[in-house]
């Protein structure tokens, strides 16, 4: 297809598509003449992925570049690709150098060890969790494994489901797609459902008060 | 205590504290002379709440103003306060006027009805969920109640726990505190644990591939 059709089918302007090509997010089409290139279904699928990461995941172009570079490098294992994605997504919480933060980060590391989870030392989610611990303690909410247990169980159930959703023998490109979607989009599905469920639970408990 | 001690204990500058007073986020201290005011533990608690909402929830001052106004108005029921908080927090997804979005929003409404959840029609989380549905479909991931079931169960379990955590007879101010913390901070706890659990599940499944 020509770039105009690619634009129609992706819902993106020709200008945006050319920008993504320049930034290395989208491979060039195959030149059929000096002024025309042909695009195919893989271009369309890539554009849809970029749109989703941009619109829903709210990721900057630089983060998408890192993810795409890892997707295109077959030597990167699926698990490493997953870790790269998480790293690109952030958020990169700036860890302050104070004793409260250090204590919280040590608690996170102890929790991960206690759960027996295989998670890289530099996973941004460790800092994200430590950051919430600091704020919760400042507000007078102590953190114990018992308080965290419902969250741990929910997170584990959902993650098992997500990884299990990738059928054995699925081609690498599709698997990558599925992992990205789990990380970026289904994370927001969980957040949205959590808020809806909270409102429902609040209504049943406090609706009359 | 004087404002300098309030500053030390809250970790906020005197300038920031004065800004919060001007913006109506923090009540004035009681004047003990023309140039000195006294502050107490409630000021400190309020400042910690504001800090948490700002730093971890990343809420703008205007959203915090809405929340504080509802907290201070005893006529607002706890459930309404909770809905106000959710509204202030957003995110306010701009709903495009296209058929895909309308279909997704109808699916969300049908899902909420099917689950029997008591959620306001204008809850921002409905739009947030619809937005993810549109993106998932665009990427070729169909949405069925079966796919959503693990997320629904996780969200419900966590929300039940959160609302149940508020002991009967807890004073209103403390209850509000607890609800806000659940919404803003524990949501991030869940997100962070979800990512850690995903990395662990990915390692077990793809670690060698």
From TrEMBL, chains A, B:
Record-annotated HTH merR-type domain positions: 1-70
SMART domains reported for this sequence: HTH_MERR
PROSITE patterns found in the cross-reference section: HTH_MERR_2
Alphabetically ordered keywords of this record: DNA-binding
Domain of life: Bacteria
SUPFAM superfamilies xrefs: Putative DNA-binding domain
Species assigned in the record: Actinomadura soli
A family per Pfam: MerR_1
GO molecular function: DNA binding; DNA-binding transcription factor activity
InterPro entries for the chain: DNA-bd_dom_put_sf (IPR009061), MerR-type_HTH_dom (IPR000551), MerR_fam (IPR047057)
Name of this chain's protein: MerR family transcriptional regulator
């Amino acid at each position: 297809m020509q770039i105009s059709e690619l634009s129609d089918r992706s819902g993106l302007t020709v200008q945006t598509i050319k920008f993504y090509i320049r930034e290395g997010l989208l491979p060039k089409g195959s030149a059929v003449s000096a002024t025309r290139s042909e695009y195919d279904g893989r271009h369309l699928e890539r554009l849809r992925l970029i749109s989703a990461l941009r619109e829903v995941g709210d990721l900057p172009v630089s983060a998408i570049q890192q993810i795409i570079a890892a997707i295109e490098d077959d030597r990167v294992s699926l698990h490493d690709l997953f870790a790269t994605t998480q790293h690109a997504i952030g958020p990169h919480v700036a860890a302050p150098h104070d004793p409260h933060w250090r204590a919280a980060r040590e608690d996170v590391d102890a929790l991960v060890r206690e759960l027996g989870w295989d998670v890289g030392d530099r996973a941004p989610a460790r800092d994200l969790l430590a950051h919430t611990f600091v704020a919760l303690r400042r507000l007078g909410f102590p953190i114990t494994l018992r308080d965290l247990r419902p969250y741990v169980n929910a997170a584990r159930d959902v993650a098992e489901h997500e990884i299990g959703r990738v059928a054995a023998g699925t081609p690498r490109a599709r698997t990558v797609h599925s992992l990205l979607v789990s990380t970026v989009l289904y994370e927001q599905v969980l957040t949205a459902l959590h808020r809806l469920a909270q409102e429902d639970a609040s209504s049943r408990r406090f609706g009359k008060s």
